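Hey L., structure's done. Input below.
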Amino acid sequence: MTNRMNYTEEVLKYIKHFFGEIRGVSAVEFALMAPVLLLMIMGGFETFNLYRFSIKVERTVASIGDITARQAVISESHLSDIFELTSQLDERLQIEEDDYRVFVVSISNDPEEGLSVNWVRDHGSLAHNSRVAEQTETLVASELVESEYENLIASEAVFAYQPIFPGFLFSERLVHRHSFFRPRSGRLTTIAP
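Output:
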């Protein structure tokens, strides 16, 4: 019986010693917190990268619309040059031509029919259509083109964003931006040959 009591006392002594020991507590805490911290760091980095990418797309769209609206007369060669600018921006955005599509749309206000699309030109090979051309009545406020003598140039872009950490929390998404400009030197309702 004495051996049993000594054994029980020894076990209780080891248990008290085990739970009373504080060495290794910080390692256990770190092991529990490391996945959460890693996800927070990855999420923050991915969010910042998506924000940076969206800003670049927004600037690209604004540049294309602004350059187009500055033309007195627009032709197919002018549009080709403007889209060539987009091709050079591919390098800055670090994307392939298959991952984007850029549109330039001319919109007029017909007194009888309302807002109408005069022409649409695009560049890039992403399988996506122009929202502005398809949903003109909902995306464009009619106050932007008040009289029948005014028109509007809409530039629009759809870019496929590839996440840095694909899979678990992050997936590919489309970044869609558009901007509107009034032509400065003339009406751009037709394209010269």
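The chain has five helices and four strands. Residues 2-181 form one domain.

-- N.
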